Amino acid sequence: MLKIRLSRGGSKKRPYYTIVIADAAAPRDGKFIEKVGTYNPMLPKDAQRVTLKVERIAEWLKKGAQPTDRVARFLSQEGLVKWEHGNNPNKGQPGKKAQERLAERAQREQDRLDAEAAAKAEAEEAKAAAAAAPAEEAPAAEEEAPASE
């Protein structure tokens, strides 16, 4: 399968891409069939960052070459292909392990709150029981003292 994709050039932190027609199995910066354009992301947005050989790209599209997502954006600006923004609603959600940890943490918090509520209820119950039954007073002094005759 043929792909229309970016091949990176330029030095470290100074990217420069050529738009190439390559086999899908070929490495990103490896063997390609034809150069059909360039992309320089270092230029300001109002400058001409992308240059395309529109006729050659149209021929390769007719032959069945598939553009990558980034190249499809460039081609859609020229009207060669229709590009839509992808929608991945699950992208922002945490992973499986993180969700498990979150559920475990929520369960521990709920157990702690339940234990606190139970302890508070016990304390209230004990306080109510103590208030309802008056505390026993010390036995009368007469009983303790020896009879004096």
Task: Describe the 3D structure.
Helices cover 40% and strands 21% of the residues. It has a five-stranded mixed sheet with strand order 4-3-2-1-5. It starts with a strand and ends in a 5-residue tail after the last helix. With 149 residues, the protein is α+β, with helices and mostly antiparallel strands. It is built from four helices and five strands; from the N terminus they run ββββαβααα. A hairpin with a 2-residue loop joins β1 (2-11) and β2.
Produce a short descriptive summary.
The protein is α+β, with helices and mostly antiparallel strands and 149 residues long. It has 4 helices and 5 strands; from the N terminus they run ββββαβααα. Helix content is 40%, strand content 21%.
3D shape: rod-shaped
Report the span from N to C terminus.
123 Å
Provide the spatial order of strands within the biggest beta sheet. 4-3-2-1-5
Strand content: 15-25%
Please report the number of helical segments.
Answer: 4
Overall strand count: 5
- By helix and strand content, what is the structural category? alpha+beta
Return the string of H and E elements: EEEEHEHHH
SSE topology sketch:
Elements: E1 2-11, E2 14-23, E3 34-39, E4 50-52, H1 54-62, E5 66-67, H2 69-78, H3 96-132, H4 141-144
